[in-house]
Amino acid sequence: MAIDPEFEQSYEQIGENDDVAIWSPDGEELTEEKQGIHGTHVAVDFDICLADGACLEDCPVDVFEWVDTPGHPESEIKAHPTHEEQCIDCMLCVDVCPVDAIDVDPSRAGRI
Ligand code: SF4
Q1: Which domains does the chain have, with CATH numbers?
Q2: Which of 7, 36, 65, 77 is the most buried (most CB within 10 A)?
Q3: Torsion angles phi and psi, residue 107, rounded to 5
Q4: Rounded to whole angstroms, how far apart are CA atoms 95 and 63?
Q5: Model pTM?
């Protein structure tokens, strides 16, 4: 399963972490096991991310930082798009993610 590029339709923004939006399916409460999507311009589905790390290695402008997600069934760290405002839309992270957990759409950033 890949990240839903239309997540704005089916998810609700329920908060922020370091000025990065947190989106939950249908606005339901998030848990250790259900982490939702983090980011808007650069969106990472934490429930798919398995901490491969290719996005951190390849991003030319260091958008991502590791965050701890203890208890999550896929991985206990995740690639958080902490500096998504620096993104230059090269799409490298989208291409290298082995589980298609990342979607980048610059037009989305201005819609919230
Ligand atoms: S699209 Fe490029 S610049 Fe933007 S987060 Fe991904 S790798 Fe970094």
Answers
A1: 7-109 (3.30.70.20)
A2: 36
A3: -70, -20
A4: 15
A5: 0.96
How many angstroms is it from 47 CA to the middle of ligand 1?
20
Q: Cα(95)–Cα(22) distance, rounded to whole angstroms?
A: 23
Q: Identify which of 78, 92, 86 has the alpha carbon closest to the alpha carbon of residue 109.
A: 86
User: CB-based contacts of 57: which residues, under 8 Å, 6+ apart?
Assistant: none
- Pocket of ligand 1 contains residue 93 by CB under 6 Å: yes
Token pair of 28, please? Answer: 């339901």
pLDDT digits (tens, 9 = 90+) for 71-105: 999 999 999 999 999 999 999 999 999 999 999 99
